[in-house]
Amino acid sequence: MVVRIGHWTFSPKLWSTMVTILIFPVFISLGLWQLDRADQKRALHANYIERQASEVINLNQEKIIRNSTDDIIWRKFQAEGNFDETVQILLDDQVINNQAGYLVYTPFKLLDENIWFLVNRGWVPTGNDRNLLPELNKTSVRITIRGSANHVPYTGISLGSAIDEQLAPGFYRLRSINIAHINDIAGEKLMPYVLNLDSESQHGYVRQWRIPGSGENVNLGYAFQWFAFAATLLIIYLAVNTKKIDGN
Description:
32% helix; 5-stranded mixed barrel; alpha+beta; 5 helices
């Protein structure tokens, strides 16, 4: 096929046509996928903001406890009870400001109820010697904690108990959070979500909680890149197959 436009001819070669037909739709599909991811994050963020604006739930009310997980996720909470600091879960490979550390999870029992939660109390540095235990707060009295409910984190790759390390009695270094496994460690049945302690609580550590749905601009940037690749490929295809007709 040869197309003549003024002093130019477009005569596509088989190899360049096949390459463009195969790769161009891939670039477009990847760009559309990133736009879809951005839409999902935008909706997630809107849902988070709406739930954060809802009334604070009191976890000491049994009727609230028995609600489904989906009713509680991202809601602000308050709860009165005690930490069980005979069990400390250190989630490994957590980096803040280029410094390695742990997220500290501690079981929390509601006052006068046999209802347990896993509380994310924030980040502590590992220090230069990973064999040394981090210095953690001691909270033996009854307290009231506040924060937000969240899904169990998907951090890490679960390979079973082989990845666990017991650093000292009651101190466990894990690569991922698995509620069923922590139930075995703690000897109690925990609720199937975690509580992130708010930044103002004196019973936690460094807290820089990531807002659900944040980062849509990253996906928009990736989408632009994929569409730019598609446009560049199309321009190259036209350039290598288009020639100027010699007027002599």
